[in-house]
Amino acid sequence: MEHTTEARIVLVEWRIKKGREDEFLEYWATRATIADRSGLIGEFLSRVEDRKQFPWMVWNLDRRWTTFVNVGFWREGAEFQQQIGRFIDNTKPPLAFEAQKRRRVFLAPARWRIGASPLLASDHPSVR
Questions:
Q1: What is the largest CA-CA distance in the chain?
Q2: Residue 84: how many CB atoms within 10 A of its CB?
Protein backbone atom coordinates (compact mmCIF):
# COMPACT_ATOMS: atom_id res chain seq x y z
CA MET A 1 0.00 0.00 0.00
CA GLU A 2 1.39 3.39 -1.01
CA HIS A 3 1.42 6.05 1.71
CA THR A 4 1.56 9.66 0.67
CA THR A 5 1.78 13.01 2.35
CA GLU A 6 0.69 16.48 1.32
CA ALA A 7 3.87 17.83 2.94
CA ARG A 8 6.39 19.43 0.64
CA ILE A 9 10.05 20.33 0.93
CA VAL A 10 11.50 23.34 -0.87
CA LEU A 11 15.23 23.34 -1.51
CA VAL A 12 17.00 26.54 -2.60
CA GLU A 13 20.69 26.78 -3.44
CA TRP A 14 22.03 30.31 -2.97
CA ARG A 15 25.34 31.27 -4.60
CA ILE A 16 26.63 34.33 -2.73
CA LYS A 17 29.49 36.58 -3.78
CA LYS A 18 32.57 36.26 -1.59
CA GLY A 19 32.59 39.01 1.03
CA ARG A 20 28.80 39.60 0.74
CA GLU A 21 27.71 36.75 3.03
CA ASP A 22 26.65 39.00 5.93
CA GLU A 23 24.56 41.15 3.58
CA PHE A 24 22.82 38.01 2.31
CA LEU A 25 22.22 36.66 5.82
CA GLU A 26 20.70 40.00 6.86
CA TYR A 27 18.45 39.96 3.77
CA TRP A 28 17.29 36.39 4.42
CA ALA A 29 16.67 37.00 8.13
CA THR A 30 14.92 40.37 7.95
CA ARG A 31 13.58 41.00 4.42
CA ALA A 32 12.80 37.56 2.96
CA THR A 33 10.23 36.91 5.68
CA ILE A 34 7.09 34.75 5.72
CA ALA A 35 4.00 36.68 6.80
CA ASP A 36 1.81 33.66 7.56
CA ARG A 37 3.74 30.70 8.96
CA SER A 38 0.70 28.55 9.72
CA GLY A 39 1.67 26.01 7.02
CA LEU A 40 5.42 26.24 7.62
CA ILE A 41 6.86 23.32 9.58
CA GLY A 42 10.40 24.70 9.61
CA GLU A 43 12.94 26.45 7.44
CA PHE A 44 16.69 26.09 7.75
CA LEU A 45 19.27 28.24 5.98
CA SER A 46 22.68 26.60 6.13
CA ARG A 47 26.16 27.44 4.94
CA VAL A 48 27.77 24.52 3.12
CA GLU A 49 30.66 23.10 5.13
CA ASP A 50 34.18 23.01 3.72
CA ARG A 51 34.59 19.95 1.53
CA LYS A 52 38.16 19.41 2.81
CA GLN A 53 36.73 18.35 6.17
CA PHE A 54 34.20 16.00 4.60
CA PRO A 55 35.71 14.11 1.64
CA TRP A 56 32.47 12.15 1.17
CA MET A 57 30.68 15.29 -0.11
CA VAL A 58 29.94 15.14 -3.83
CA TRP A 59 28.07 18.43 -4.32
CA ASN A 60 29.76 20.55 -6.99
CA LEU A 61 30.98 23.68 -5.21
CA ASP A 62 32.55 26.65 -6.95
CA ARG A 63 35.28 28.58 -5.14
CA ARG A 64 34.05 31.82 -6.73
CA TRP A 65 31.11 32.01 -4.33
CA THR A 66 29.87 30.85 -0.93
CA THR A 67 27.07 28.31 -1.13
CA PHE A 68 24.09 28.38 1.20
CA VAL A 69 21.22 25.90 1.07
CA ASN A 70 17.75 26.72 2.34
CA VAL A 71 15.50 23.79 3.22
CA GLY A 72 11.85 24.58 3.96
CA PHE A 73 9.33 22.02 5.21
CA TRP A 74 5.69 22.84 4.49
CA ARG A 75 2.52 21.08 5.65
CA GLU A 76 1.09 21.26 2.11
CA GLY A 77 2.36 22.39 -1.27
CA ALA A 78 -0.63 24.73 -1.65
CA GLU A 79 0.40 26.60 1.50
CA PHE A 80 3.90 27.18 0.12
CA GLN A 81 2.40 28.37 -3.16
CA GLN A 82 0.09 30.80 -1.35
CA GLN A 83 2.76 32.23 0.95
CA ILE A 84 5.88 32.15 -1.23
CA GLY A 85 5.55 30.50 -4.64
CA ARG A 86 3.15 33.00 -6.17
CA PHE A 87 5.71 35.79 -5.62
CA ILE A 88 8.65 34.00 -7.28
CA ASP A 89 9.61 35.63 -10.58
CA ASN A 90 12.42 33.76 -12.31
CA THR A 91 12.80 36.54 -14.88
CA LYS A 92 14.24 38.95 -12.29
CA PRO A 93 18.03 39.34 -12.28
CA PRO A 94 20.05 38.08 -9.30
CA LEU A 95 20.21 40.34 -6.24
CA ALA A 96 23.39 42.38 -5.71
CA PHE A 97 24.92 39.83 -3.34
CA GLU A 98 24.18 36.83 -5.59
CA ALA A 99 27.01 35.48 -7.77
CA GLN A 100 24.43 33.60 -9.85
CA LYS A 101 20.67 33.09 -9.79
CA ARG A 102 19.50 30.81 -7.05
CA ARG A 103 18.30 27.33 -7.94
CA ARG A 104 15.10 25.84 -6.51
CA VAL A 105 13.46 22.45 -6.42
CA PHE A 106 10.08 21.39 -4.98
CA LEU A 107 10.12 17.93 -3.38
CA ALA A 108 7.26 15.52 -2.66
CA PRO A 109 8.33 13.07 0.07
CA ALA A 110 7.97 9.45 -1.07
CA ARG A 111 9.26 7.87 2.16
CA TRP A 112 10.24 9.39 5.50
CA ARG A 113 11.61 8.72 8.96
CA ILE A 114 10.83 10.61 12.11
CA GLY A 115 13.52 10.73 14.76
CA ALA A 116 13.26 10.95 18.50
CA SER A 117 14.74 14.46 18.62
CA PRO A 118 12.38 17.39 18.09
CA LEU A 119 12.98 20.18 15.58
CA LEU A 120 14.38 23.41 16.98
CA ALA A 121 11.79 25.12 19.17
CA SER A 122 12.33 28.81 18.33
CA ASP A 123 13.59 31.16 15.63
CA HIS A 124 17.24 32.17 15.40
CA PRO A 125 17.56 35.47 17.36
CA SER A 126 18.15 37.59 14.24
CA VAL A 127 15.25 36.22 12.15
CA ARG A 128 11.97 38.09 11.79
A1: 51
A2: 18
* Structural contact between residues 97 and 15, judged by C-beta atoms closer than 8 angstroms: no
Domains defined for the chain, CATH in brackets:
10-107 (3.30.70)
Find out whether 8 and 78 touch, Cβ atoms under 8 Å: no
For residue 65, give the nearest of 28, 19, 11 by alpha carbon.
Answer: 19
**DSSP assignment of 16-55, as one string?**
EETT-HHHHHHHHHHTS--S--TTEEEEEEEEPPPGGG-T
pTM: 0.88
Q: How far apart are CA 96 and CA 23, in angstroms?
A: 9
Helix (H, G, I), strand (E, B) or coil at 88: coil
75: pLDDT strictly greater than 80: yes
